[in-house]
Amino acid sequence: MNSSLARSSRHPPCAWKLACIKTRWRNVLGILLLLGMAGPCLALTTPSLIASVQSLQCLEYRIVGICYWLLCTPFGCTVKTSPKVRHFNPELVVSSYAQTGANPWQAMAALSTPIPGSEGGGNLLTSAQQRDSQTRFKNVDAIGHPGGLALSAVAQRLGYACPNGATALLPYYLSTLDPLGWRHAVPEAVYPQALLPGMREIGNQALGEMWGSVYPRHGFLVQLDDFKAAAVIAQRASDFITRPGQPHVYLPLLPLPYDGYWPPLQVMENDMTNHRWQLLYPQLQTTCAVFPSPTVESEDGAYAWALWRPYRCCQRMGQTFLFSIDFAGGA
Questions:
Q1: What DSSP element (H or E) covers 142?
Q2: Nearest-5° angle of CA 322, CA 325, CA 326?
C-alpha cells in the first residue's frame, strides 16, 4: 500500500479550474507531438494509435436510411436525397493505470504528473487472498484520439464519413486534477447507485460475469483481476465524460446535433450499440467489444483502450433539411 494515497487533503486552486486542463495541454502539445513520432521506443505511440483505426469491425459502416433535402435555385425548388450512414468513430484514448504519472501513452504522460493532492498510486493489495482485501486503484486519463482523420479517410472510401465530435489530443479528463471526486468519491459515495446492489453494474451476476459497479465513479475497486479493475474504472470515467454537469473536474464530450448529423448518446455499460472498446495496451487489438471481454494482463498495471461511439449523418444536398427515414433493422 502506498501511504501517499492518503495525502490528499490539500487541493490546489488549479485542480478545480477547467482552464487548468487546457493550459497544460497548450504548454506541452508541441513536445507531445514530437515524442509521439519517436516510434518503437515508446510503449504506446501516437503513430500506432493512428494506425489502429483501420479496423473495419470497429468502424462497422452501414447505410441505415435516406435523408431528404430541399434544393432551391432561381429556376425553382426540388427535393434531393442522400444516404443516411452510420459508423463508429474513435473518440478517446482512455488510459487506466496504477502508478500516478505512468500513462502507457508516454507522449501524454507529462499531462498527468503527480501534483499536491494526487501524489500516490499503486494497488492496496495484501498477501491474503480474501476478496475483500484486494482493493485496486487506477488513475485515468481520457484524451482525444489522434486517429480521427485517418478514420475519416477509411470511411470515405466506403461512402460519406461522419465528423468526429471529439478533438484530437485534447484532454477531456485527467484524474490527477480531480482528487476529491476520484480519490475520495465525494459526493458519489452516498448516491443510491453506489449504495444499492444491482444498480449500474458491468456484466451479469447471474452469468458469473459481474466485473464491478459503475458507481461510485472513482479510482478504487475491490477486484481480484487487474484487467477487470482497470476496465471498470475506465468505464466509470467514460460514463461521466459523456454526460453534462457531473461532480468531477472534466471537459464534457457532448457533440451537438445539426441538420443531417446525429451524434451518439451518452455511454451506457453493457450496450454495444452506443459504445465499444478497442484494447490498445498492453496488446493492440483490431477488434472492439464491450465489457465483459477477454482479459489480457499487463505486467506494469497499465492499460489503454480506444472508446468508439456511433455517429449517424448524411451528405447535405440542399439548403433545407426536410426529414430522414430509417431502414428496418438499420440501427
A1: strand 139-144
A2: 150
How confident is the prediction along the chain (331 residues), in pLDDT tens digits per residue? 444 443 433 333 333 344 444 444 444 333 333 333 333 334 799 999 999 999 999 999 999 999 999 999 999 999 999 999 999 999 999 999 999 999 999 899 999 999 988 887 777 655 555 555 588 999 999 999 999 889 988 888 888 999 999 999 999 999 999 999 999 999 999 999 999 988 999 998 777 789 999 999 999 999 999 999 999 999 999 999 999 999 999 999 999 999 999 999 999 999 999 999 999 999 999 999 999 999 999 999 999 999 999 999 999 999 999 999 999 876 6
The grid coordinates listed for 43 are: 510503449
**Dihedral of the CA atoms 330, 151, 147, 55 (nearest 10)?**
70
Closest CA to 57 of 248, 324, 288, 312: 288
Identify the H or E element spanning 236. Answer: helix 226-241
How far apart, in whole angstroms, are the C-alpha atoms of residue 328 and residue 148?
Answer: 29
Q: Which three cell numbers stand for residue 143?
A: 484524451
DSSP 188: G
Q: How far is CA 34 from the centre of its chain?
A: 24
- Residue whose entry in the numeric block shows the C-alpha cell 427515414: 325
DSSP, residue by residue, 6-25: G------GGGG-HHHHHHHH
User: What is the pTM for the complete model shown?
Assistant: 0.84
Paired strand residues for 302: 97
In sequence order, what are the residues at sequence separation of 6 or more whose Cβ sits closer than 8 angstroms to the Cβ of residue 2?
120, 121, 122
Across the strands, what pairs with 77?
A: 72
Could you give the C-alpha distances from 148 to 29, 165, 170, 283, in angstroms and in order? 17, 9, 12, 21
Domain spans of the chain, in order of start: 3-322
Q: What single DSSP character describes residue 289?
A: B
Quote the CA–CA distance of 30 and 204 in Å, as a whole number. Answer: 44
